[in-house]
Design a protein that fits this description.
Blueprint lengths: L5 E5 L4 E5 L4 E6 L7 E2 L4 E6 L1 H20 L5 H20 L4 H10 L5 E5 L4 E6 L6 E2 L4 E6 L4 E8 L11 E6 L2 E13 L9 E7 L1
Antiparallel strand pairs: 1-10, 2-9, 3-5, 3-8, 4-7, 5-6, 7-9, 10-13, 11-12, 12-13
Helix pairs in contact: 1-2
Length: 207
């Protein structure tokens, strides 16, 4: 049995950075502090963007054009009009507008001045990079969300103990907050490089 002191970290595969797909101004934060728990699909921010408005106007104009041309006797005219609709719809998708939002726009034929950005996963907000009223550019990070249902534990194992460590073996850990509870996990990675200063190898377990 090997005993080692470890540290808990986020599972990198369960981290998600929420970015702005469009440049604009943050007019409302629905999630306004770090540590807040969110569910997938929860509203995060309300952003105003002139580019968003103009893209929606282009989409509505393409729909209007298609409505006028769809009964044409010339197939190429109908195809061109349909192509304009699909092109405008792809631009809206690139701006991060959901299919549901596009369907609502197509049905209501009303331009929305603001776009709501939603949480892509359920988890805990571990980083918030924005405040009300700030202007953001395309690709600007807004939040970082971590799903804490699975975490990583790192521990340094001495060189002479390495023959007893294998990927896939069971690991039990205790933490100061819950000393009477043993959490179980599975070893998932053994660093192939030895630390020459401490003569240890870092291992990782999934908890």
């Amino acid at each position: 049995q090997i005993r080692a002191v470890g540290r808990i970290d986020y599972d990198e595969r369960l981290l998600k950075v929420v970015t702005a797909h469009i440049p604009g101004r943050i007019d409302k934060l629905f999630v306004d502090f770090t540590g807040m728990k969110v569910k997938a699909g929860d509203a995060l921010v309300w952003i105003y963007s002139p580019e968003l408005v103009s893209t929606q106007q282009e989409f509505l104009l393409s729909l209007e054009t298609f409505d006028k041309m769809k009964n044409s006797s010339l197939p190429e005219i109908i195809a061109n009009a349909q192509s304009l609709v699909e092109s405008s719809k792809r631009r809206l998708n690139l701006w991060g507008i959901t299919p549901e939002q596009i369907q609502a726009l197509e049905k209501n034929r009303q331009v929305n001045t603001h776009l709501t950005i939603y949480a892509p996963i359920s988890g805990t907000v571990i980083q918030k990079a924005i405040v009300d009223g700030i202007h953001v550019g395309e690709g600007s990070p807004l939040y970082q969300i971590a799903d804490l249902s699975n975490v990583w534990m790192y521990a340094d194992i001495y060189e002479y103990e390495m023959s007893w460590v294998k990927v896939g073996q069971q690991v039990k850990i205790t933490v100061a907050a819950y000393p009477a509870v043993a959490f179980t996990g599975v070893g998932s990675f053994v660093d192939p490089v030895l630390n020459p200063n401490t003569r240890t190898v870092r291992v990782r377990a999934e908890i």
